[in-house]
Amino acid sequence: MGLTTTLLVLLCLSCGHGKGRAPREETAIAAKAQEERPLNTPATYAPPFHCVDQAMDRATPAFEETFRSMGFLEEGESLRLDTHAEQRAQCVEAAPLRDLDGDGVDDLDLTAGCQWNKVWSHAIFLSKGCRFVGLLIDADLQVMETRTGGMADMEATSSLGCAGLNLAWNHYEWNGEEYESVDEAFCYFCEPDPVPGDVEATDAAPNPKVCEKLRPEWK
Questions:
Q1: What is the pLDDT of residue 33?
Q2: CA angle 88-94-97, nearest 5°?
Q3: How remote is the C-alpha of 176 from its chain's centroid?
Q4: Least enclosed by CB within 10 Å: which of 8, 23, 121, 165?
Q5: Top-confidence residue, 162 or 205
Q6: Is the pTM of this model over 0.90?
Q7: Where are the domains of the chain?
Q8: What contacts 4, CB < 8 A, 6 or more positions away?
Q9: d(CA 70, CA 56)
Q10: CA-based Rg of the chain, rounded to a whole angstrom?
Q11: Is residue 93 within a helix (H) or strand (E), and if so which, with residue range?
Q12: What is the 3-state secondary structure (H, E, C) of 117-152?
């Protein structure tokens, strides 16, 4: 059952409640509809969720390439995200992302990845035209007030260990075709900092201005 069919079932249930169907049967049908909807997608089918099916088709090859590069897929193994069960197995979620292009409508963040310690593969789509605008691997994305090329900037902060006291920060901007990382910071609030072996020395380049902003109040 596709998303459109599922939503029609839900609408029919709400407008025809109690007409010729036992309550238990209605409950079973509603439960099945809920189970078969794409993950984390509301029944309203409102933007940005109107393009989840299209986004899934576009994002799957990008997710597959990322999974393979990180060793989660064997050579020649394909990533399939056609069914609810396949999506659940890869922790796929669809979530609104605060309006990026300024059209007044939230955009779509389609994420996948279970094994990455609170870092996911993000496929970003604009609501208008379901346009794919980038694949980012990071923690939860935060839309910023600043803009580049008419598109809102984004940032994300992820843990480098030591109970979340060591942090990695990325700043993403629109380059005219897609989002890309334009600035980063590695901040070490653990003692000692950095912990030997946790981060390669060549990666341990702090950004004082950003790290001061991220510094815990009690440190």
A1: 45
A2: 155
A3: 21
A4: 23
A5: 162
A6: no
A7: 1-37, 44-138, 141-219
A8: 45
A9: 20
A10: 21
A11: strand 93-97
A12: CCCEEEEEEECHHHEEEEEEEECCCEEEEEEECCEE
